[in-house]
Amino acid sequence: MLYLVSTPIGNLKDLTFRALEVLKSADVIACEDTRRSGQLLKHYNLSTPGGGSPKLLSFHDHSGPGRVREIISLLKEGKCVALVSDGGTPLISDPGFPLVREAIREGISVESVPGPSAVTAALVASGLPTERFTFFGFLPAKSAKRKKELRAAGELEHTLVFFESPYRVGAVLTEMLEVMGDREAALCRELTKKFEETVRGNLSELAEKFKGKKVLGEIVLVLAGKGRKKVFG
Q1: Torsions phi, psi of 23, nearest 5?
Q2: Is the separation of the CB atoms in 120 and 76 below 8 Å?
Q3: Phi and psi at residue 82, in whole multiples of 5°?
Q4: How far is it, in rounded angstroms, from Cα 103 to Cα 36?
Q5: pLDDT class for 163, splitting at 50, 70, 90?
Q6: Which residue in 21, 112, 160, 200 is a FRET match for 39, CA 20 to 30 A apart?
Q7: In this structure, are residues 217 and 195 in contact, taking their beta carbons and an 8 Å threshold?
């Protein structure tokens, strides 16, 4: 069985009871960063039924097809493998899709263990409509490609969700204002952590507030769709 296990995006108390059980029973835990996942296991004092610790196997963007084949071989041997990301739900702007695709092709059972997700956490906290939304992940690094994607996104009439780097969030907010026009938005930072912050307002206000400002932590931007009525008043 291949389990896709959601792990905390910040607050370690957000790990579900089922996720704890799966991680404890897994023969192998495939993870982006073995040190970070190791800290999570240590926090919960997780060990296998035999008293040992599950084997941690690195699996990230640069692992290559060889690591996929290795994990598939383990699954074919009858091993239980849990796939986790550094935080949140696996495969959402994280590696893992090639492994899941190959497991399905090989007839291996795949189960999702739902839990924390920065996408939905930011969406419901934003105050913007939630009945329909599009998640774009991270925007392109180059400004020209970024603006092209923003122009297309700006025509959608439902809520838009983006992941963004804290190092360029001011510049991206300015580009969003330039390309998509002034509209309501929310900047969600450090979700579930001690210094969690959600800043709501028009894009013009957010762009001014964060212009040239050093921002810390992981960021999710939530924008109103084209022509949507104001929510914030």
Answers
A1: -65, -35
A2: no
A3: -110, 125
A4: 25
A5: very high
A6: 112
A7: yes
